Amino acid sequence: MKELIEYIAKSLASNPDQVKVTEESNEEGQVLLKLEVAEEDKGKIIGRQGRVAEAMRVLLRVRAVKDDTRANLEIV
Fold first, then answer.
1. Is residue 50 a contact partner of residue 18, using CB atoms and an 8 Å limit?
2. This prediction's pTM
3. Is the alpha carbon torsion for 11, 12, 17, 20 positive or negative?
């Protein structure tokens, strides 16, 4: 899941070397992915009215269902 979000973010960002994804798990088996990008790339990652970010979250949820878990994406 981490690789999926990292691939999408690096494809969209002007500074792909500044893209960083961290993965955290909790006791219930939920996964939290934190996406960090350069300040000038945040607009591209979030998109108009959050459409790009929402699309990334949908893809992440689909991937999580295949792994029989739950996942959330947080853009920092």
1. no
2. 0.88
3. negative
Kindly state the average pLDDT of the residues 42-64: 95
Contact 69, 29 (CB under 8 A): yes
Element holding 20 (H helix, E strand)? strand 20-25
How far is residue 41 from each of residues 11, 38, 57, 62, 71, measured CA to CA in Å? 11, 5, 18, 25, 23
Residue 76 three-state SS = coil
**Which residues share a beta bridge with 70?**
30
Q: 74 with 35: CB under 8 angstroms?
A: yes
How many CA within 13 A on the CB side of residue 45?
27
